[in-house]
Amino acid sequence: xxxxxxxYRGTPRNLxxxxxxxxxxxxxxxxxxxxxxxxxxxxxxxxxxxxFAAKGRPRTDPLIVHIASLGYxxxxxxxxxxxxxxxxxxxPGALTLVxxxxxxxxGDATAGLPxxxxxxxxxxxxxxxxxxxxxxxxxxxxxxxxxxxxxxxRHVEQGLxxxxxxxxxxxxxxxGLESTIVDLRDPRRxxxxxxxxxxxxxxxxxxxxxxxxxxxxxxxxxxxxxPGQLERHYSPKTPVQLHARISAGxxxxxxxxxxxxxxxxxxxxxxxxxxxxxxxLKGAGRRLFAILRKLDDAGFQRIHVELPxxxxxxxxxxxxxxxxxxx
Length: 327
Ligand code: TXA
Ligand code: MG
Description:
Elements lengths: L5 E4 L2 H12 L4 E3 L6 E5 L3 H11 L8 E3 L6 H4 L4 H10 L4 E6 L6 H4 L4 E5 L4 H10 L3 E2 L14 H8 L5 E4 L10 E4 L7 E4 L5 H8 L4 E2 L26 E4 L6 H4 L4 E4 L10 E3 L6 H17 L5 E4 L6 H13 L2
Parallel strand pairs: 1-8, 2-8, 4-6, 5-9, 10-11, 12-15, 13-14, 13-15
Antiparallel strand pairs: 2-3, 3-7, 4-7, 5-6, 9-10
Bound molecules: threonylcarbamoyladenylate and magnesium ion.
């Protein structure tokens, strides 16, 4: 039966309705401060399987479980003191912790892993919805598998409008890049699985130990080995080419290709784009996915991007750009 998704504003009545759909095991696309998510009851194996089916996501790629308060944490995961330190410092917010899971979370949510990725989001509508649903909500980004993550309700509609019935519109995502993921199963050796708006330096300040980056095994396909490390991800259809530095004349020599900078005030042209007019990396993170979508739809032969330099947000932006460029 073909259908089109309905988009809801976050009125109390709509939130109560959507919470009831979630309790019945249905899918609801939800706004978060990072990217839009495709949510379902994380304690229901059948509901979690519906997420994989709607996204066309391989069953080997585990989901993130979202909670509304610290009281929920022990229901879904086995926390350690270091996890609680990070939770106190960064929750609600763009940080996901990987910990041993409890029995409440079915293997269908975690791709059969004995661990679970947990996050307490800060978006007020999503938090209200979790509270009303009364269950933790599993939610990956609300895009067809492998495509650029959605940062507006409209993006969700464009990608999944024929596969999801309900979309809650909470405005554009404030951060725009997926959460930072830290593996804390061994609290003495925290591992950064995915860089995000909560930076490695911030994590190290709170934990007092080095946070190393996960090393993706060469050619890794199996989520069992290194979940979240799928090379090709977040990819537009148009080929993306990365540059350490783009020369001033490059864009005028190739007018049918797009040239994307964090900002380059000296350059102007119909095929030149900036992520942030002031060169602010937070602004760049907020706009990256929307701009990649726009350039993908504009019919350019290729998208050239100058990589931002440095740590923190630059690390997160560089990670998403490298994945967008991976073939
Ligand atoms: O900001 C976010 O994290 C967004 C919003 C919706 O919360 N969610 C998100 O989910 O980005 P997704 O599914 O696109 O990415 C989740 C990543 C996956 O790459 C997955 O492999 C990793 O988290 N992950 C989930 N469970 C894991 C586990 N038990 N161990 C290691 N990695 C895990
Ligand atoms: Mg995703």
